[in-house]
Amino acid sequence: MTPSTHSNLVVALYRCSTDRQTESGLGLEAQKEQVESFCERNGLTIVASHSDLGVSGKAPLEERVGLVDALSSLTSFRAGGLIVAKMDRLSRDPLLSMTIERIVERGGARILSASGEGTDNNDPSQVLMRRILAAVSLLLVLTANSLQPKMLG
Description:
By secondary structure, the protein is α/β, with parallel strands linked by helices. The protein has helices at 19-24, 28-42, 65-77, 94-106, 124-147, and strands at 6-16, 45-53, 79-84, 110-113.
């Protein structure tokens, strides 16, 4: 954090792409509970919350209204962090994940995962963990897409 941000203030971001996520435990309420519990345990205050509902993790930044609003709130509140329940809630596109991370860092903040997925600090091993998780997330998307029945016609 830079002196211009408050390390104890965070902006929460939630994303659900399908109704199936609600049933699987990755739904909005489950994400909120996970993020709020993490914040309580770590002395963090959520100053704003934003959601991208019905939005794919592969969607480009311009289609992520909740994410764009969350990035704006980081600046408005001078928050020291953008928190997600899991890193794949940020994005399933590794390039977009790194772009978001760079935008957040340039504002003097950092990304936090309530699941602790390589967001403890910017130690090289933590950065590597984030990159590996982003690549695995993309692999899961590509694998799921290749298993879908092909349309006939």
